[in-house]
Amino acid sequence: MDPATGPQEKYHLITRNLQEVLGEDKLMAILKERELKIYWGTATTGKPHVAYFVPMSKIADFLKAGCEVTILFADLHAYLDNMKAPWELLEQRTRYYENVIKAMLESIGVPLEKLKFVRGTDYQLSKEYTLDVYRLSSLVTQHDVKKAGAEVVKQVEHPLLSGLLYPGLQALDEEYLKVDAQFGGVDQRKIFTFAEKYLPSLGYAKRIHLMNPMVPGLTGSKMSSSEEDSKIDLLDRKEDVKKKLRKAFCEPGNVENNGVLSFIKHVLFPLKSEFVVLREEKWGGNKTYTDYEALEKDFAEQVVHPGDLKNSVEVALNKLLDPIREKFSSPELKKLTQAAYPKAKPAEKHTKNSEPENTVVPSQLDMRVGKVISVEKHPDADSLYVEKIDVGEPEPRTVVSGLVQFVPREQLQDRLVVLLCNMKPKAMRGVESKGMVLCASSLGEPRQVELLEPPAGCCAGERVYVEGYEDGEPEDELKPKKKVFEKLQADFRVSEDCIAQWKERNFLTKLGTVSCKSLKGGSI
Fold it and tell me: How far apart are the C-alpha atoms of 250 and 307, rounded to whole Å?
């Protein structure tokens, strides 16, 4: 790893591929005098996945630029964020993160001795830090902290006080870690500007903030720990990597929201300064690209085929994952993985009369956020609509719904809905329907029907799951004879707060709960 020399070269390395820098002048002034001190923090919640190679790649850049880099394992933050990491699992999850992040850094050739690793609870429980939390809480408004955490802290209908503390702690970390700059995703921007506003109120310096773009996941939306198909786990087997990449959104010629291209740009190119597209000789043979723009141009002009791109990423990605898989094949780390992320045990298996082979669980359903692109009356059935619904795939799905007498056409147009996507396609009066729009229904007469509503801000294609069943893999297609949906639907209800539930467990997206407008106690 050859270090950069002059301030301009260091500045280029530190800022390349970033979406935004707050404090550019201060950054250059520091680089002219000494090395930059910077930290990156990660809350120890869901399992890290391959998107974590994006910040790892930037950390490699920071080290090449001579920076003093601290990595914070934010264990206390993980608990405060709506208890994403339960207290009893906090220690194991933090140890898992420490091991897996270090394994990732080693796999891309980053020397660990040049990094400083810190846990939040090493200093966040001290008398001085705690007093500063109280001092800060006397200065900030509830409105400002809610706004600051809007894109990072889990948004729920009745937020816990702990989530409101989160942005303040992240601001104070900059002072207590004695850094010049904090690095994170652009989704952290509101927390960064919050820190810039309030740290000087406590007599502390305003820091520099460096922001990575949000890299699309394999479905075309943000890569997320809670969306199984949008991410490749660091310990996934090679056959799982192949399967998930095969499903990845990579439309010929389309460079927008293309997770495969984004991974090449933000991880593979910075690490190797080149990327090789592997092709059979009859399609022109292998081609080496030494700059990303040339590859993107060839893909946009369909010189590079999506299949070849995916195969090439698969080979390069497995080279990064092999040493991590090998490290985690040890009995000690296998045990740690199981302790940090215990499998959720479905409630049915604990009932006396249930038979395991007949057990059905909500994770078998492929429920997604859909956006209604168009709505037309069915040409041969007055009670049916024919909708085109975007669920994050290359083409919108055609869906037939019996909603004419319940939902006006104009209320459906451009609406976010919840779509069950893995039902067997079914011809409805001559039109094939490839999904089912989920709705709440009143139990009494006259019958009322309302659409289930994902949280505002969701993207088409985001996964909808039942609380506690985030990690399961949906079936490719539900077999009608097994009646999986029908068995689960028997326990679907709308709560007194109008939240969609299965056995009193909430329907969720990464932005919060799925609800209906008013049908308390209704069926789904």
Answer: 9
Which 8-state DSSP code applies to residue 290? S
One DSSP character per residue, 223-285 reads: --TT-GGG--BTT--HHHHHHHHHHS---TT--TT-HHHHHIIIIIHHHHS-EEE---GGGT-
Least confident of 28-37, 130-139, 386-395: 386-395
**Contacts of residue 457, Cβ cutoff 8 Å, sequence gap at least 6:** 511
Under CATH, to which class is 238-340 assigned? mainly alpha
154 or 362: which carries more pLDDT confidence?
A: 362
- Report how far residue 167's alpha carbon sits from residue 191's, in angstroms, rounded to the nearest whole number: 6
Q: In what order do the strands lie in the sheet with 208-212?
A: 20-22, 208-212, 181-185, 37-43, 68-74, 115-119
Contacts with 357 (C-beta within 8 Å, 6 or more apart), sequence order:
none
- Enumerate the CATH 2.40.50.140 domain ranges in the chain, comma separated: 362-523
> CATH for 7-212?
3.40.50.620
Residue 413 has a pLDDT of: 92
Considering the segment(s) 362-523 as one domain, its CATH architecture is Beta Barrel (2.40)
- Residue 112, pLDDT above cutoff 50: yes
Q: What is the mean pLDDT of the chain?
A: 88
Start-end of CATH 1.10.240.10 domains in the chain: 238-340
What is 152-188 written as a DSSP string?
TSPP-SS--HHHHHHHHHHHHHHHHTT-SEEEEEGGG
Six token digits for residue 444: 């009494």
Residue-wise pLDDT for 189-229, tens only, equals 999 999 999 999 999 999 999 999 887 776 555 444 445 55
Q: How far apart (Å, rounded) are the C-alpha atoms in residues 281 and 283?
A: 5
The answer to whether 493 touches 484, Cβ cutoff 8 Å, is no
Higher pLDDT, 93 or 354: 93
